[in-house]
């Protein structure tokens, strides 16, 4: 039960960091840097997306490994832990799918704007 609370706390902190990263860029950030280096040291959108997808992949891999170990007869893994890890993986995948849908909708709206 404590692991589930810790995982939910970690997910909440990840969401709060994504909210903090979603602020509007300053005019200096809109001008591309010729060297390609980021002067602020903040992660780029691609890095943030890659990290988030890596966490989703890790959650799914962990749930898969836990389920396989339980089905192989490991007595040290209770069924409740297996179910919690599978539900965490399901929620992570649903969240990733929702974010993907929102990004596609935003891209579609931008492409349909008249200039």
Describe the structure.
Helix 3 runs antiparallel to helix 4. The longest helix has 33 residues, at 79-111. The chain is mainly α and 115 residues long. Helices cover 73% and strands 0% of the residues. The protein is built from 4 helices and no strands. The protein has a domain at 43-115. The model has no long low-confidence stretch (mean pLDDT 81).
What is the H/E string?
HHHH
Specify the number of helices: 4
Question: How big is the Rg?
Answer: 19 Å
Q: Give the termini distance in whole angstroms.
A: 53 Å
- Percent helix: over 70%
Structural class: mainly alpha
What low-confidence regions span 5 or more consecutive residues with pLDDT below 50? none
Would you report the number of β strands? Answer: 0
Main sheet characteristics? none
Report the portion of residues in β strands: under 5%
- Shape, principal axes of CA atoms: elongated
Nearest-integer average pLDDT? 81
Question: Summary?
Answer:
73% of the residues lie in helices and 0% in strands. The protein has 4 helices and no strands.
Please describe the structure with a list of short key phrases separated by commas or semicolons.
115 residues; single chain; 73% helix; mainly alpha; elongated
Would you spell out the secondary-structure blueprint of this structure?
Elements: H1 2-21, H2 27-30, H3 45-71, H4 79-111
Helix pairs in contact: 3-4
């Amino acid at each position: 039960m404590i692991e589930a609370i810790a995982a939910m706390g970690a997910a909440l902190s990840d969401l709060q960091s994504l909210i903090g990263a979603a602020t509007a860029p300053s005019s200096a950030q809109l001008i591309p840097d010729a060297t390609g280096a980021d002067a602020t040291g903040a992660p780029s959108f691609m890095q943030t997306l890659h990290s988030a997808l890596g966490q989703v992949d890790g959650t799914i891999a962990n749930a898969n490994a836990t389920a396989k170990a339980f089905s192989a007869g490991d007595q040290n893994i209770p069924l409740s832990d297996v179910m919690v890890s599978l539900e965490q993986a399901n929620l992570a995948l649903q969240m990733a799918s929702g974010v993907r849908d929102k990004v596609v909708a935003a891209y579609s709206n931008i492409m349909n704007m008249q200039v």
